[in-house]
Amino acid sequence: MELLYKLLFISISTVFVQNFVLMRFLGLCPYIGVSKKLDSALGMGMAVIFVMSMASCITYLIQYYLLVPFGLEYLQTIAFILTIASLVQFLEMGIAKYAPALYKALGVFLPLITTNCAVLGVAILNIQSTWADGTPFNFIESILQGFFAGIGFTLVLVLMAGIREKLEYSPVPESLKGMPIAFIVAGCMALAFLGFAGFKI
Amino acid sequence: MEFILYPVAIIGGLGVIYGLILAFASVKFKVEIDPKIEQVMEVTPGANCGACGYPGCSAYAEAIVKEGAAINKCAPGGQAMAEKVAKIMGVKAGAQKRKVAVILCGAGGTDRTNTTFEYNGVNHCKIMNTVGIGTNACTYGCLGGNSCVDVCLFGAISLDEFGNKTVDRDKCTGCGACVKECPRNLIVLADIGKEVHVYCSNKDKGAVAKKNCGAVACIGCKICEKKCPVGAITVEDNLARIDYDKCVSCGLCASVCPTGVLVDNKEKRGKARVTDDCIGCTLCAKVCPTEAISGSLKEKHVVDPEKCIGCEACVSKCPKKAIEVDYAD
Predict the structure, then answer these.
(1) CB count, 10 Å around CB of A188?
(2) Distance from CA of B129 to the nearest CA of A (A)
(3) pLDDT reported for residue A145
(4) Which of B6, B15, B25 sits opposite A90 (nearest CB)?
(5) Would you state the pLDDT for residue B177?
(6) Which residues of A touch B6 (CB under 8 A)?
(7) Between A and B, how many CB-CB pairs are < 8 A?
(8) B197 in helix, strand or coil?
(9) Is the pLDDT confidence value at A105 over 80?
């Protein structure tokens, strides 16, 4: 029961209540940049889910088995960036070799998220997140948070892409065409997600 | 000492380990990419115009190498690119004639169009075409929305002060974007050197066509059809059409056309010129359809500008690239 409760808590709070893009404002660059087409948005989303889960896993180990024992928490940012960048590079090579179809689908997006702030954000937030009683997230919970952060990112990216595809056929005023209307839509979406704030589970 | 040693050792160690893993992975997971694709990609124009039928230059390069796609499909790259690709791929480049767009309507500018009403809507031909079949009194003629100008990636269609359009044959790559864009199908691609055109697409009876047209209209009198020595002109639905495959650009039809809608752009034709690189192989003289090139074996050949029709047939034949074409404009 305890585990189910935790799963539910982490999933709903990271996907909706504390959505990485619309509530924490992390990963805004791909949110605007890769949301023009539904296909590429979905591809990007899958790559982010994948990388976030893997990054959560590795950075947790780095933090608790390398940085904490030596009292080097202040090197967290640089160690995590280094780790995530190498991890993405490594994954890209591995996927290219063993799953060419997946590589073609993710291909362009994998290098894009090498230094994505949402990925670094999830790694750091995993360390900072605590339960109500003050206990920090354990290994499994960190990975879950990373995974659901990716799901939340994908959700808003796909929603945005769907709206922007519809916008292509809508009578948008000349001066608002393209980026301006995309920003307005992004703002509206953030307002809509604000409705989840204060949601108690 | 420890407070500096540990951080350096750990971060440095992490860096070294990651570096080693990546170095190992780059060898272990190496994916062989055909270097030919990159080479072919380099010689493409990179305009991504889609004239080849592939979704971009890189897709076309990949198709050439992997699927053995035809190498002469690139309109902007033309013969020059086909030859370069041929060298990379080790196949022969088939002769490819450069095509340019021709707008088969004399109207379009404000001075040459009879308008029926004032249009204040969006300046886009496809939309204009749906509003009361356009402002042009001629229901076959140019709408004047200049969508062909907008869609041209190479800036090859220019407008004069009245909005009349001219195609710059030097800039036109024959990609066909304007052909697809024109809602009235007024634009065709013709081989360069075909300089006799019927600048009208009206299928009404002579009197109606003449009344509606602000410029000159084809009245379907069939004089050109009778005069054409090679049977390249047919009059159908009161409109003369030239079969560019048969046309030899002799210009006879233009000289007898009573309305002047059949035009022989004599002065606009390019004139071939043999440069000093000529080795006198006589190939150009053999291929010339009008026998405009003369000269004996192993001597520099000469082009008779009077006879040259600017078809560029000799240009692609010359093994030394010693023939250049000069344009008057």
Answers:
(1) 11
(2) 19
(3) 92
(4) B25
(5) 86
(6) 70-72
(7) 46
(8) strand
(9) no
- Is the whole-model pTM more than 0.90? no
Q: Which of B11, B22, B30 sits opposite A79 (nearest CB)?
A: B11
Pairing of strands B262-264, B271-274: unpaired
Question: Looking at beta carbons, which pairs linking A175-181 to residues 24 or more positions away fall under 8 Å?
Answer: A179/A32
CB contact under 8 A, A89 and B30: no
CA distance between the termini of chain B: 80
Is B11 close to A75, i.e. CB distance below 8 A? yes
Which regions in chain B score pLDDT beneath 50? Answer: none
Alpha carbon distance B246, B191 (integer Å): 11
- Nearest-Cα distance to chain B for A187, in Å, is 30
Question: What band does A191 get if pLDDT is binned at 50, 70 and 90?
Answer: very high
Which residue has tokens 């585990």? A3
Q: Which helix (H) or strand (E) holds A36?
A: none
Most confident segment among A87-96, A178-187, B287-296: A178-187
Nearest CA-CA partner of B191 in B169, B159, B158: B169
Q: HSE-up of A7 (CA within 13 Å, CB side)?
A: 4
